[in-house]
Design goal:
This protein is an all-alpha fold. The chain is 80% helix and 0% strand. Helix 1 packs parallel to helix 3 and helix 13 packs across helix 15. The longest helix is centred in the first third of the chain and has 21 residues. The radius of gyration is 21 Å and the shape is globular.
Length: 360
């Protein structure tokens, strides 16, 4: 029986997670391959599938509980030996390790997951492994590689739309994020509009909400922050019901619009109001989420033009540089450029700006 970790206090959940991770550590050390696939009971397979559903759902709101379910998933999949579920479980573990410890920690597991997926012949398993590889590339800011992988995932899942609506939607969302960070704003606008119409026709409110948020970049690129603000408000009006989820997903959009419109004080107030809750959620432990939020926090602090806020910008710039990924270092250099400019060090500001340009 799988217990409900999300209902326990955080400290107790962490203790549960540490115990499970220790069990998994020794279980994986003893595991090499699955020479044959024993028949698993229907109850065992249902438990694995339940853990998968809980993991995917909680990943957006409770990272500790999600990790507990993901560990349960892999432990049960190793015991069952069913190839497709084991491939999915290994790819989930590879993603978790890659995000927390870097790509080398994920490489072996992802390779094993890919081999198992090929042996099963499952289109969903193969696309899932590609999805994980794309997420790891996004985590390092390798947007062009991630975009190509996400396009492959969307193509496969589009041909087999019955396989998993969650991954179909997530691959669409992350593909749009890749286009944004690649600077392909026209292509982003075109594809986001098409994805929005499709999501609305299917009643997929989460995907529609995300596509509306991505659509704000079209008016911003046309120097129309007022229209961008209207689109953000429209997206919030039709957002999923969870207040916490809505605030997290819309915050970055609201900050971008406010900063572009020159409303630095409003952006700073929005950020100060939301930051404690966002930090407490655990989302800032994930570089894919933490890097843009640390960057925009530093940018908002700089934009107030108050010397008292410069330490916040300096802390954000240093944090970004410590991550040692190409995109975090580039965004950190951009913040350092602003800090040098505010202090009157024009030559240093130009050098950092050139470094940011090369990195992006």
């Amino acid at each position: 029986m799988v217990q409900k970790p999300g209902s326990k206090p955080l400290r107790r959940r962490l203790v549960v997670l540490i115990g499970l991770r220790l069990r998994l550590f020794f279980r994986l050390r003893a595991w090499r391959d699955v020479p044959r696939f024993p028949a698993a009971s229907a109850e065992c397979l249902l438990q694995i599938d339940t853990c998968v559903s809980a993991y995917l759902g909680l990943a957006l709101t409770d990272l500790v509980a999600a990790a507990v379910y993901q560990t349960h998933q892999l432990l049960r999949a190793l015991g069952a030996g069913e190839p497709k579920r084991l491939a999915l479980a290994l790819s989930h573990e590879a993603l978790l390790r890659g995000i927390l410890r870097g790509r080398p920690a994920a490489a072996r597991l992802l390779q094993q997951a890919a081999a198992l997926a090929e042996r099963t012949g499952s289109a969903y398993a193969r696309s899932h492994v590609r999805f994980t590889a794309a997420m790891l590339s996004m985590n390092r800011g390798e947007w062009h590689d991630a975009s190509a992988l996400m396009s492959e995932v969307s193509e496969v899942l589009g041909e087999h739309s019955h396989l998993n609506a969650w991954h179909t939607g997530q691959s669409t969302i992350f593909r749009m994020a890749c286009l944004l960070w690649c600077g392909e704003l026209r292509l982003l606008a075109t594809q986001a509009r098409a994805a929005l119409r499709e999501a609305q026709a299917r009643g997929q409110r989460l995907i529609a909400f995300e596509m509306q948020l991505f659509s704000l970049w079209e008016p911003l690129a046309a120097d129309d922050p007022h229209e961008a603000a209207l689109r953000t408000d429209a997206a919030l009006a039709g957002a999923p019901q969870s207040p916490l989820f809505r605030r997290r997903m819309a915050l970055l959009a609201q900050l971008q619009v406010a900063l572009y419109a020159g409303e630095a004080q409003r952006a700073w107030e929005l950020l100060c109001a939301a930051w404690p809750e966002y930090a407490a959620s655990g989302a800032l432990r994930l570089p894919l989420l933490a890097v843009p939020y640390h960057h925009i926090r530093g940018l908002a602090a700089l934009s107030t033009q108050r010397p008292s806020q410069r330490p916040v910008a300096l802390a954000a710039a240093r944090w970004l540089r410590r991550q040692r990924t190409p995109w975090s270092e580039a965004l950190g250099a951009a913040l350092f450029s602003g800090l040098h400019r505010a202090a009157g060090r024009e030559f240093d500001a130009l050098a950092e700006l050139e470094s940011a340009e090369r990195g992006l």
